[in-house]
Amino acid sequence: MNSDFSSILLKWYGQNGRDLPWRHTRDPYAIWLSEVILQQTRIAQGTGYWLRLIGRFPSVEALAKASEDEVLLLWQGLGYYSRARNLHAAARQIVALGRFPDTAAGLKQLKGVGDYTAAAVASLAFGEDVAAVDGNVFRVLARVYGIEEPINTPRGKKVFAAMAQELLPRGHAAAYNQAMMDFGALQCTPKSPRCPACPLQEVCVARREGRVEALPVKLNKTKVQERRLTYIYIRCGGCTAIHRRSPGDIWQGLWEPLLLEKGSMPQWRGRLTLLAKAVRHQLTHRTLFVDFYLLETEERPPIPKDYIWIREEDFDHYAHPQIFEKIKNKLV
Question: Has 166 been annotated as catalytic?
Answer without folding.
Answer: no
